[in-house]
Amino acid sequence: MTLPIKKACGLTAALLASVALASAASAQGFDWMAHKGETITFLANNNPVATAILKYKDDFEKKTGITLKVDSYQEQQMRQRLLTVLNAHSDEVDVFMTLPSREGRQFAAAGWYQDLKPYTGDQTVSPDYDFGGLGKALVDAAVFDGTLTGIPLNIEGPLLYYRTDLFEKCGVDAPKSIEDIQKAAEKIKGCSDASNVTPFASRGLKPALPYTFSNFLHNEGGEYMKDGKSALCSDAGKKALSTYANLLKDYGPPGVVNYSFYQLTSLYRAGRAAMSFQSSNEFPSVMEGGERLKDTGIMPLPAGAGGSHPTTIGWAMAVSKYSAHPETAWYFVQWATSPKMQAKLALEGIAPPRAAAAEDADYKAWLAEEPVRQKWQEALQTLASDGTSEVGYPIVQNPESREYIGQAVDDILLGTADVDQACANADQQLNALIERE
Amino acid sequence: MARTLSPRGQLLGLSAPALVFTVVMIAFPFGYTLWLSLQSFTATGMTRFEGLGNYGRMVSDGQFWNGLTVTFYLYFLSLALQLFFGTVLALLLFRAKKLPGIVRSLFISPFMMPPVVAGMMWLVILDPSLGAANFILTSLGLPPSTWLASPGLVVPTLALIDSWQWSPYVALIVLGGLQALPPSVYEAAEIDGASGWKVLWRITLPLLLPTLATATILRSVDLLRFFDLIYITTQGGPANASTTLNIYGFRTGFEFFQLGYASALMVTLSVIVLGAVLILNRMRDAVAW
């Protein structure tokens, strides 16, 4: 089961402390050129994180003498390739990007990850690496059955972006609860200053929406599984399903059922949405062009009946179990997740998984340039301290579980089922999935 | 003195490349898929021999029947539109012989565009909030549409996009057929005083039937395996309304990692495609002249 991030901190503290001590003792013999002349292949997801890292590819090659071959795909195509390569036990890929909250349990159970724990504690650690400085909760979220499957690259989660100018014109206060979102949306819908603006937008595309829906579920006090069974039909589950689906149905943009990050960003950036619940990762894209820099507020999803439990996940860098050069691959992982690199990435809007990066002078100056950046950073700090990484069911077949969650929301959204039917159908399929596991 | 191969040796030598290609690129992948379809995979890659279990599972799988229905709905609708528009375009191009080459090339250019690019382009145009299509509709005083986001409209919309892209391809085939029609028949029709409409219905279209049958076969193979455009625009949604058998098989295999069941779905689809081609081939023979 995925632990709430706050609780998980303690579990990893001992591991991190011992690793940090061991590294300090052994790092003196570290040599960045130890694998000079070798070649490794990096399977990258063509997202802002990888794009920002690969801008510095030449620096890595110069620093280490290692040749980095990059295989870059969109997220789904990357997974397709990864599954094929790993299932064939091929050494074609040495390093890859992974989402522990999605495929971590599955890949770990299949034994496809190289355990990185031993690498963080021996002579292959640079003196300035500071493994202990990585967000403990994110490190813990990447540990499955004692195996450290990846090193965090970023921290992210869905955040509520809202138009402060429209809220002011329409006399709406920033929401303090999920109920307030509905009230704000209703008021904006009837506000003449916000005509042609969608009151509320979030993901509606079936496989993509569990990322945003999970926050509603947890804030309403729900959980995906209880006593080994699917719990979407619990009171909290039904409340979350109907609240999320009805917000989209009553106040969402036309065609929201096909909405993922791309449409949400386009809509909000174009000034056509008053509230958009979408990924913190999209912040640079949302602010592109500068039109939303001065009129946007950002906050985690307001609390529901069950409190505030933001969804917090992150991409991680992993080494394939079948890599012919795991030590060399680790050098790349170490370089990409080093304090120096993560401080550079932070300046490009990649939220750093290291608390120290937030204290970096350049980063602070960048934040200070625009109040909205500061708001974004504050929201990220809340994600880091209060978040949970449960997106979909905590089972090996997590990706398939997302399909049924998405179907339940879309059934209500499209009016093909009421909440009781939708959750019952989903529970039936999810229980079968759990049983199959 | 150079040795000459026996006729049998020459036959083997000359056909070897084609034979190797067929085995490596067609027979082996299909045989391997067939073997996979008899296995059961866990999410962690473990396999177990399942026999015909995966095929039995299809019968009670609502998603399979939905996929089959969507596949055929999209197939018949797209095929009808493409044959119609392709023939109309070919007749126009055939008559407009003085049309500059660049204009003719523009007419037939959509099918040269990669489907992914076409999909992205139409995704932007048909966006219900920001797209040009709804802007035009509302500018004309017409109600906006949800296009790809409506369970009822998604298949017709996909069929229209595919027809925009592939009708010119059908037109090229039909144009070739038109140019090969015997002029003597038209001369006889002219002497008999047949109207243009009668010539079209009684002479041109019947004589074009073998060409249209060829176009039907070529498009059928593609349409029954419809994938890229759906994957880019809707990923099978909303609510499985555009989940063809191909999309369902892909998601089952590569997103849910049930490679055995996905292989069984793909073998079934291959049989359907093969069956359709065989039937259409028979029909083409029947209309040959």
The CATH homologous superfamily of chain B is named MetI-like
Please give the CATH class of the largest domain in chain A: Alpha Beta
Strand/helix succession of chain B = HEEHHHHHHHHHHH
Alpha carbon gap, first and last residue of chain A? 14 Å
Helical percentage of chain A: 40-55%
Question: What is the overall shape of chain A?
Answer: globular
SS-based class of chain B:
mainly alpha
Rg of chain B, alpha carbons: 24 Å
Integer count of domains of chain A: 2
- CATH-defined superfamily of the largest domain in chain A: Periplasmic binding protein-like II
Number of structural units classed as domains of chain B: 1
Q: What proportion of the residues of chain A form beta strands (DSSP E)?
A: 5-15%
Radius of gyration of chain A: 22 Å
Average per-residue pLDDT of chain A, rounded, comes to 90
Strand order of the largest sheet of chain B: 1-2
Might you state the CATH topology name of the largest domain in chain A? D-Maltodextrin-Binding Protein, domain 2
Q: What's the total count of β strands of chain A?
A: 13
Descriptive report:
Chain A contains 19 helices and 13 strands. The model of chain A is unreliable at 1-27 (pLDDT under 50). Chain A has 437 residues and is of the alpha/beta class. Chain B has a single domain (75-287), classed as MetI-like (MetI-like fold). Chain B is 72% helix and 2% strand. In chain B, strands 1-2 form a two-stranded antiparallel ribbon. In chain B, strand 1 and strand 2 (47-49) form a beta hairpin. The relative contact order of chain B is 0.14.
